Amino acid sequence: YIGNVDFDPGPSQYLQNFLPPGGLPYDLYGQGIRFVLKLNSAMEFEKVSMYSKDLQFSSVTDPLNNIYLYGESKGNVDMDPGPGVTLVNNTTSNKVFYIAKYDSLFNFSWVKSTQNDIISPSTLRYGKNNSLNLVCYLIDTLGSNGFGIQQYGCNYSNGPLQYTFYINFDTSGIAKQTINLG
113 has which bridge partners? Predict the structure, then answer.
């Protein structure tokens, strides 16, 4: 969001204001704050958590209502919406893939990232046997990362060749199986 926003959809108000550095005019599509809004089952406001514009994310939940945010981070972004600071580990100037876990009240549990591998996530879904299933693609070597994903060499010098992967994680973010789908 950019500007003044009331995040409470009911008669009460939870106002937030954000103007990008430098003020107006600003780029509506690149300078805003990312947020996660938590409503209860009656659609009443519970909580809102703010994140850097350098973070892209989607979400998935498990049967215990744990929430997993996943996507790409352009920098070392703080994933802990509370008073603590836990950063996505990004050792490059490129975007890195990450997964962050939160409990059903949206309290932060953990975050893991590929650190320097450029993985573009297609989809992450909760699956059988208490696991997370990721389909992604990359153009580079898959190796140094916080997930324990095994090393793969993908020769990007062959042009814009993309390799599709299936990766199965347990709910603590450790890769149990990695398959190069070609």
Answer: 98
